[in-house]
Amino acid sequence: MLNETMTALGKHRSTIREIFEYGNRRAVEVGRENVFDFSIGNPSVPAPDAVRQAMLAEAAGDPVALHGYTSAPGAADARQALADDLNRRFSTDYTADNLYLTAGAAAALSCAFKAMACPGDEFVVLAPYFPEYKMFIEQGAGGKCVVVPPSVTDFQIDFDALAQRLNQKTKAVVINSPNNPSGVVYTEATIQRLAALLRDKARAFGHPIYLISDEPYREIVYDGLTVPFVPHYYEDTVVCYSYSKSLSLPGERIGYVLVPPRATDSGDLYAAVCGAGRALGYICAPSLFQRIAARCANMTSDISVYQTCRDLLYDGLVEMGYTCVKPEGAFYLFPQTLEPDDRAFCERAKQYDLLLVPGVDFGAPGHMRISYCVQPDTIRRALPLFGKLAEDYRK
Amino acid sequence: MLNETMTALGKHRSTIREIFEYGNRRAVEVGRENVFDFSIGNPSVPAPDAVRQAMLAEAAGDPVALHGYTSAPGAADARQALADDLNRRFSTDYTADNLYLTAGAAAALSCAFKAMACPGDEFVVLAPYFPEYKMFIEQGAGGKCVVVPPSVTDFQIDFDALAQRLNQKTKAVVINSPNNPSGVVYTEATIQRLAALLRDKARAFGHPIYLISDEPYREIVYDGLTVPFVPHYYEDTVVCYSYSKSLSLPGERIGYVLVPPRATDSGDLYAAVCGAGRALGYICAPSLFQRIAARCANMTSDISVYQTCRDLLYDGLVEMGYTCVKPEGAFYLFPQTLEPDDRAFCERAKQYDLLLVPGVDFGAPGHMRISYCVQPDTIRRALPLFGKLAEDYRK
Question: Which of A10, A64, A114 minimises the CB distance to B272?
Fold first, then answer.
């Protein structure tokens, strides 16, 4: 009687959410400090104090203007401020009219997919990938999600596997670098090779193939790394961004779709993103946080603790014999599990109150995602338990 | 190449938005004070000062908790606070688990439609109706929107016309009282008759017919009127609510879907609403305003100015010979236009810088919507222009 797909989606929460909720129940039983919840990507560092200052400054203004509807793509001055910030950092020449503000990256992706999807269209995602992509593509936009298996030695791109999956029906390829769940950042060489492949195929098929770059972790990188700015390498790039991670504002839902002016049919694509926002019930991005993002776009939370956590966790696990591609960004580690069945491994880890997410959910079985957006002390106390778990497997 | 429907939706803004943007351009030419923009429903009274106080109080708290993800349906304590407020006012026994917090009423409706819609399903809307319903139903949820013509003498329900449009495929009927655009509040007798009809038809068809009650204007009524609380009259009611109007927070996007425990398949329906939220890319309602709504749910903005405006405008127009059903709520007046072609009439009104929305967009041609959420002085200055316009038609 109801929509069965929606009912199922609602009943079977994402595995990540399921583990997160298990952790909350378990915390009641054994104490919060004894549950090592590495399941969810909720930033552990506070928003910059400038966010609080901006809230106070805005609260002193006219509430009718502050809390009123903005135009559907977002307030023009807020969009211009965000465009200026991009222009300053990436030497681009974007204007307010290239940005459509959204309720976070999930909304940005949903609008981009819905804007593009015609019946039969395929969207290619590269494992390991954020599991909700499939749902936004298939349930939200009515497209088909095609998965490229992971390149497990380095989590860059398996180009042969990707090339095999591009065809006449391919509307777009989705990338996410720095990556959730692997933490890997695509190298400039990877981006260049990807751009060349997509240009070739677009020419062969006689229509553009868009590259949807989902980059909420763009600012969270280590060792002074620079993330290549994807639109510089491939014209038909659409960027989906969120301030959830860089400004530690995941609950506030503020991000954007960037449709660069050089993209094919840029004007129509921007219009289609606006239309998709209407169709999906997005009226405007939350107005207060449009203004706060505009005021704070040029800064990030103090992300140094994430590097401390990565170093502690990566070094500790590798020393114990875990195999792991060293992540250079985001706040996830994606080591191999100690048995091929990653679900079984993660269940076994629960005996030590280590809450990990099986890789199979990201299209990469035999791995586990560890969200290390926690306090370093949590990692120090968890490491001996990872050690005991490894010992169990040696018995 | 792109989705043509989305491109068209994005290019052809809703008529309301189009007129609103025209008003902004015209204000630059002739001065803001000389443009009488009655197009958009942006509350003109500020949020209660308690909203500002709540912002300041929350800003002093832990930013990680404040701005973090909440669980997908909303923070349990915020949901419970909103349930408690409903229980106090309507003698109900709702819990946190009956509420799914959303980014406003548009998101609430989108989730409700998507939760219910199976292929071929019909959703019945009653003219005059909010034009975005059709888009949420057809483009967002994949259902079919069926329109019942208006009962123009009183804007209650034409029950014969409604009964003719109910059939085996009817999944739900959508009502909106106090109504946008007519301002009319359904009487208790109307709600009772509607409930009886839906019960009859549900029995005849052998499946429930849900009643989706879209009620963002529930608190905005005049002359001490009480709005019947629809779930008291019909078990299979789902309420979509927003704090946009009652707390003057339209840009902040905070509202809810209420799935009462007595509704058929209540548990599954709630799950399906959660699933629809996932599919449409809604992660959680904005976290700060979840807390602010919880703190301020028992109050409203000072809405007395709306009654002042209604009285001024209604009395003034009727005296000039305009025909209009007297509105008892919301902040819209929906008089008949002085020629059958309401688009032509609204174009002609522009000559006097009166910006009105044609009724045809709401499924009620021959009418005009006047949003009177403006300052009373604006109405005093606009009335002579409505007079001149009427004179033009007498020539």
Answer: A10
Bond before A73 cis per omega within 30 degrees: no
Predicted ipTM > 0.90: yes
| A365 SS3 class | coil
Residue A72 sits at φ, ψ, to 5 deg, of -55, -40
Asked whether the beta carbons of residue A287 and residue B252 sit closer than 8 angstroms, the reply is yes
Residue A233 phi, psi dihedral angles, 5° rounding: -105, -25
Contacts for B236 with CB less than 8 Å, ≥ 6 apart: B198, B202, B208, B209, B210, B211, B263, B264
* B364 closest CA partner among B392, B321, B325, B391: B325
Percent of chain B with pLDDT over 70: 100
Name the band, by pLDDT with cuts 50, 70 and 90, for residue B44.
confident
Strands of the A237-242 sheet, one edge to the other: A99-102, A255-258, A237-242, A210-214, A170-175, A122-126, A144-148
Interface test with B, best of A20, A40, A280, A282 (most B CBs within 10 A): A280
Name chain B contacts of A277, Cβ cutoff 8 Å: 10
At position A11, the amino acid (one-letter code) is K
Give the closest of B52, B272, B288 to A6, CB-based. B272
pLDDT at A359: 97
> Which amino acid type is present at position B316?
G
Q: End-to-end alpha-carbon separation of chain B, Å?
A: 52
Token digits for B231?
């779930």
Q: How confident is the model at residue A213 (pLDDT cuts 50, 70, 90)?
A: very high
Burial B82-113 (b: 16+ CB within 10 A, else e): bbbbbeeeeebebebbbbbbbbbbbbbbbbbb
Helix (H, G, I), strand (E, B) or coil at A183: coil
pLDDT digits (tens, 9 = 90+) for A20-49: 889 989 999 999 999 999 998 888 899 999
